[in-house]
Amino acid sequence: MPQKIFIVEDDDVIAKTIGNYLNRWAFTVDLVKKFDRVDEEIRAAAPDLVIMDISLPYFNGFHWLSELRKHSNVPVIFLTSSGDDMNLVMAMNLGADDFLAKPIELPVLLAKIQGMLRRTYQYQQTETNLTHGEFTLVPTDNQLRSPTEVLDITPTETKLLSLLFSANGEVVTREAMIEKLWEGDEFIDRNALAVNMNRLRKKVAPVGLAELIETVKGKGYRLASKEAGHD
């Protein structure tokens, strides 16, 4: 069954150009029709991945991403203006999984889509549950479970936690994390890892896991035991 891509882009030429290109690669493509009901249309379409512009009629892409993340962890690739680092950081903090600066190079977009779909869905099918102290990571459900609460997390956050849980307190290098998340994707911005880690810490703070995620200067990150605390 073809995988479905949902495009939220108000420039009709860009949207149709992307759509036609992806059709040739055997994807099913839906384009948003009502820009004041973006979240409703995404729910109805149930896509495997969303491509979303930041500048949109009625509400911007940040608003719709926030609404989407209330009920879905579907991968989202943001389209940004070239060199707009502030929008990139905001998008990643709100739950975007990747980004691409305009003007868009279609082969680069295709590579990002294929990589994101492969990492998200194949990964979920093969990973087993992991534990660290009182916490359990359930990759197939994208959930972090504590004795008191269950947190829904994104596929990207799941992959980061799986590395930390599997390391048993040892340092996970930045290079290993980048390879896990983006499989050596040459198009990835190196700052994206730091943004994702900051977002992860905020997400897991309510259950007390954030205080165990330690930054090891010049190396990477590790997950301390609750008894040890920070160095």
TrEMBL record:
Start and end residues of each OmpR/PhoB-type domain: 127-225
CDD domains, per the entry: trans_reg_C (cd00383)
Span of domain Response regulatory: 4-117
Gene Ontology molecular functions: phosphorelay response regulator activity; transcription cis-regulatory region binding
Coiled coil feature spans: none
Modification sites for 4-aspartylphosphate: D53
GO cellular component: a single term: protein-DNA complex
DNA-binding region residue numbers: 127-225
Membrane-spanning ranges: none
UniProt xrefs under SUPFAM superfamilies: C-terminal effector domain of the bipartite response regulators, CheY-like
GO BP term, pick one: regulation of DNA-templated transcription
Alphabetical keyword list: DNA-binding, Phosphoprotein, Transcription, Transcription regulation, Two-component regulatory system
The name this protein goes by in its record: DNA-binding response regulator
Origin organism lineage: Bacteria, Bacillati, Bacillota, Bacilli, Lactobacillales
